[in-house]
Amino acid sequence: MTLTTAAPELASTTEPSPPKKAPRRKKPRLTVGRFFAWAALVAVMLITLIPFYWMLRTSFSTSTSLGSDPGSPFPVDFTLGAYERVLGLATPAEALAEGGSGASINFWAYLRNSLIVATVTTIGQVLFCSMAAYAFARLQWKGRDLVFSSFIAALMVPPIFTTIPNFVTIRELGLLNTYAGIILPTLLMTPFAVFFLRQFFLGISREVEEAAIIDGAGPIRRFFQVILPLGSAPIATLAILTYITSWNEYFWPQLVGREEDVRVLTVALGVFRSQTPQGGPDWAGLMAATLIAALPILILFLFMGRRVINSIGYSGTK
Predict the structure, then answer these.
(1) Which CATH number fits domain 107-264: 2.30.180.10, 1.20.1440.20, 1.10.150.320, 1.10.3720.10?
(2) How far is CA 299 from CA 59, 295, 308, in A?
(3) 3-state secondary structure (DSSP) of residue 95
(4) What average pLDDT does this structure show over 125-145?
(5) 5 pLDDT exceeds 70?
(6) What is the spatial distance between Cα 228 and Cα 211, in angstroms, rounded to a whole number?
(7) Counting beta carbons within 10 angstroms of the beta carbon of residue 169, is it exposed (0 to 12), middle (13 to 18) or buried (19 or more)?
(8) Secondary structure string (H, E, C) spanning 18-32
(9) What pLDDT does 131 receive?
(10) Contact assessment for residue 161 and residue 95, using Cβ atoms and an 8 Å cutoff
(11) What gap in Å lies between CA 59 and CA 78, rounded to an integer?
(12) Where do the record's region annotations for Disordered lie (predicted)?
């Protein structure tokens, strides 16, 4: 009798206990302060997006019809003609009929030039700034701190002060209207980028680098095989910020790269703006070109949005 009654008791004790439910998060209460905070956030978001929407609305209108209904929130005489003009798909007659100049636009050449300038500048600046930051952070050499202090002092010099000396140097070297002339002043390094990476490299554990030294690694091997992999996050941050800055640069490319062969998109948009085919700018074409010019940055933000936001917060840049 004892055995027949003990078996069911054993079976009941071995049954798995039901999983515990995760504690439910309480929904935040909608207080008056929270309501006004959300209202302010939505208002700021709308104010930020309205210029973008207006640009989109204008790009889908015809320049000749915009004056007839300038306050309409919707495209006036909806058309894709502005994009066709910018991409070189419209005939001169079609362009003139919609308020364009009828002149050919080398949009793809301008896009190629912007891609070349931004990509080469980013690669060069990230590489050389990383090497300089490593030398300032991890290598011991005489006068290191003095040189670094002098280098960082350049942060206090407004960029406009160095524009004329840079222009004279580029002109004397015969590099006006060349890719090299546009890229060289920012190719090597900037004080901010060196300072930014040096602060991170200082925080890398010295034991990791000392282990590499025991294995016989020299400074170059330690830099490429130890420091760079550990510093991939801030280096990616710097690359994103550098690419966006280089893509949006206008003044320096306008100064040294006016020829058609090396003209970048930002400068081309300025030239496009100055054209007045029928007594005024081709606003629809200009807005379409601006939207297309912003596409690479929008795509970059679409795929790396979280890292871009982290970059802004990490670097303190606005």
Answers:
(1) 1.10.3720.10
(2) 19, 6, 12
(3) helix
(4) 90
(5) no
(6) 16
(7) middle
(8) CCCCCCCCCCCCCCH
(9) 92
(10) no
(11) 9
(12) 1-26
Q: Rounded to an integer, what distance in angstroms lies between the CA atom of residue 261 and that of residue 178? A: 8
Listed residue (118, 297, 114, 126) closest to 228, CA to CA: 126
Answer left, alpha or beta for residue 280, where phi above 0 means left and psi between -120 and 50 means alpha.
Answer: beta
Residue 30 tokens read as 């909608």
Tokens of 103: 């002149």
Eight-state DSSP code of residue 61:
S
Tokens describing residue 267: 């400068």
Indicate if the alpha-carbon torsion angle 263, 267, 272, 274 is positive or negative: negative
Domain boundaries, the chain: 107-264
Structure confidence by residue, pLDDT tens digits, 73-124: 888 888 888 888 888 777 777 777 777 766 666 888 888 999 999 999 999 9
Query: For residue 232, is pLDDT > 70?
Result: yes
**Is 272 in contact with 285 (CB distance < 8 Å)?**
yes
Q: What's the token pair of residue 37?
A: 């905070």
Tokens describing residue 149: 């202090």
Tally of CA atoms within 13 A in the half-sphere of 205 that contains its CB: 5
Rg from Cα positions in the chain = 29
User: Which amino acid appears at position 113 of this protein?
Assistant: N
